[in-house]
Specification:
582 residues; alpha+beta; Sulfite Reductase Hemoprotein, domain 1; Alpha-Beta Plaits; 3 domains; five-stranded antiparallel sheet; 26 strands; globular; heme; ferredoxin-nitrite reductase activity
Length: 582
């Protein structure tokens, strides 16, 4: 297999009323006591994987006690479905034939996630969600039209979502269409490679990169390089495709911390050092059903030229040393806890090709006393005469005709570019000021995707929910909208309140960073009947004073939510109850 290269730029939870429901984390769990290298058995720092036939596989002696997903990877290399054309053969098989063999059944249910394809066996048998790679959330009108053309053919099963990692997910895909879809993606400069399972997820950056008058650094060159490295320029990168678990990365370019660095496995924080520009590093942030943790300082700084070598070294240390047993204890922070931050740091330095990893800089560039700005609505760009317009996509859900219309608006009023955000909204950049009035009068913005939604709607986030996701316990998107609409009739708010919904403890909706979070569960109503409910989280913060939310109330039936949420808004966020007669 040929090599590749790219240029570089200069505490446990109590159970709830339903005993079978999973436990959830309440707090950001602190790291364990530091360990020095001399206290570790030397064998613990022996790499647990080895290269074999061009792929990285778990060594024989480390295969005892591994989890089922690791066994699936050992039985057949997932990347071969892409790199050796296995997807073409699989796409020609009937589902009856596929399901008759464990190997091919695992192909469609597990290994295809390495191609960004998620089989919805539980609720939509034979249909797939496809997750794209979209570094920094930047996309084009041509790309948007192509995705619209894909989902349109699937009728009511076809739709798209803006995700909390600044990218697209499209729904309704059927297996026979996949080879042709992959070719179409490549033709418009997109790919879905290595976007699921034990891979690096979409690199997140500042959604206002390059246009923000107050930006620290344009994050697009770095997120693009990261994406190119992660997928080896869309050819597939097997050196980092066998991680112990998923892994998130972001590059911060704003004082607003739109990029949410504290919940990423690796976050690049801009900092100068001795007249050189570079980044301090945070590591280990993550959410999971059993534990949530904020990223820790690595006490390391890299120059802008070393963004990719550093990322490669961190990934290789995690790949080599991470455990592969209980999936709830295989995210990178668990490895940091076990080794201690200094040993983990030294293992990264070992993999930096002879370079010394410098200590963190004291010249941090992010202003800690900074009020997070609102990017929805009309805002001036750093380029004279141009503005960007942030529009609200209710809970991130969008359909083919709407995608086509957005693409048309980007061409007509901007430069054919759209920006996706982690709050599931979209920005149209580069609009001439003389065209703003006409854009704001467009029916799509007047009737569906408003630049000026209500204070509660503008920051509302919801995961897929059980409409499409087999892991979700409750329906989220429609319910989030309905509850918010009803709450708005009960109370008036004077400031934004970020409300996030997630269908299960996997917390794709990131409830722990919300002012008010709702995590799906099964509970009992006043008559003892099992019903859909939520655990309510309160007090999450984003920005330099980030803090993960704590559970406020557990097992609330969804039908009882409106008055409870209204009271929370009054008691904690200064809302005022409306006079119903008025």
């Amino acid at each position: 297999m040929s090599s590749f290269s790219i240029p570089f730029l200069t505490p446990p939870c109590s159970s709830n009323t339903i005993s079978s429901r999973p436990k959830i984390c309440l707090y950001a769990t602190p790291a364990l006591s530091p360990i020095v290298a001399s206290e570790l058995d030397a064998s613990r720092l022996e790499p647990r994987v080895e290269e074999k036939d061009g792929y990285w596989v778990l060594k024989e002696k480390y295969r005892v006690g591994i989890n089922p997903q690791e066994k699936v990877k050992l039985e057949k290399e997932p990347m071969a479905l892409f790199m050796e054309g296995g997807i073409d053969e699989l796409a020609m098989m009937s589902f009856e034939e596929i399901d008759s063999s464990k190997l091919t059944k695992d192909d469609i249910d597990v290994r295809l996630k390495w191609l960004g394809l998620f089989h919805r066996r539980k609720h939509h048998y034979g249909r797939f969600m496809m997750r794209l790679k979209l570094p920094n959330g930047v996309t084009t009108s041509a790309q948007t039209r192509y995705l619209a053309s894909v989902i349109r053919k699937y009728g009511k099963d076809g739709c798209a979502d803006v995700t909390t990692r600044q990218n697209w997910q499209i729904r309704g895909v059927v297996l026979p269409d996949v080879p042709e879809i992959l070719k179409g993606l490549a033709e418009v400069g997109l790919n879905s490679l290595q976007s699921g399972m034990d891979n690096v997820r979409n690199p997140v950056g500042n959604p206002l990169a390059g246009i923000d008058p107050h930006e620290i650094v344009d994050t697009r060159p770095y997120t693009n390089l990261l994406s190119q490295f992660i997928t080896a320029n869309s050819r597939g990168n097997p050196t980092i495709s066998n991680l112990p678990r998923k892994w998130n990365v972001c590059v911060v370019g704003s004082h607003d911390l739109f990029e949410h660095p504290h919940i990423n496995d690796l976050a690049y924080m801009p900092a100068n050092k001795n007249g050189r520009f570079g980044f301090n590093l945070l590591v280990g942030g993550f959410f999971s059903p059993k534990r949530c943790a904020e990223a820790l300082p690595l006490d390391a700084w890299v120059s802008a030229d070393d963004v990719i070598p550093l990322c490669k070294a961190v990934l290789e240390a995690y790949r080599d040393l991470g455990t592969r047993g209980n999936r709830q204890k295989t995210r990178m922070m668990w490895l940091i806890d076990e080794l201690g931050i200094e040993v983990f740091r030294s293992e990264i330095e070992k993999r930096m090709a002879g370079k010394q990893l410098e200590r963190a800089s004291e010249e941090e560039m992010v202003q800690k006393e900074w009020e997070r700005r609102d990017y929805l609505g009309v805002h001036p760009q750093k380029q004279e005469g141009l503005s960007y317009v942030g529009i609200h996509i209710p809970v991130g859900r969008i359909h083919a005709d709407e995608m086509d219309e957005l693409a048309n608006l980007a061409d007509k009023y901007g430069t054919g570019e759209l920006r996706l955000t982690v709050e599931q909204n979209i920005i149209i950049p580069n609009v001439e000021n003389s065209k703003l009035d006409a854009l704001l009068k467009e029916p799509l913005l007047k009737e569906k995707f408003s630049p000026e939604p209500s204070l509660l709607m503008k920051t509302l986030v919801a995961c897929t929910g059980n409409q499409f996701c087999g892991q979700a316990i409750i329906e989220t998107k429609a319910r989030a909208l309905k509850v918010t609409e009803e709450v708005e009739r009960e109370v008036a708010v004077t400031r934004k309140v970020r409300m996030h919904w997630t269908g299960c403890p996997n917390t794709c909706g990131q409830v722990q960073v919300a002012d008010i979070g709702f995590m799906g569960c099964m509970t009992r109503d006043e008559n003892g009947k099992v019903t859909e409910g939520v655990d309510i989280f309160l007090g999450g913060r984003i920005g330099s004073d980030s803090h993960l939310a704590q559970v406020y109330k557990k097992g609330v039936p969804c039908k009882d939510l409106v008055p409870i949420v209204a009271d929370i808004l009054v008691n904690h966020f200064g809302a005022v109850k409306r006079n119903r007669e008025e």
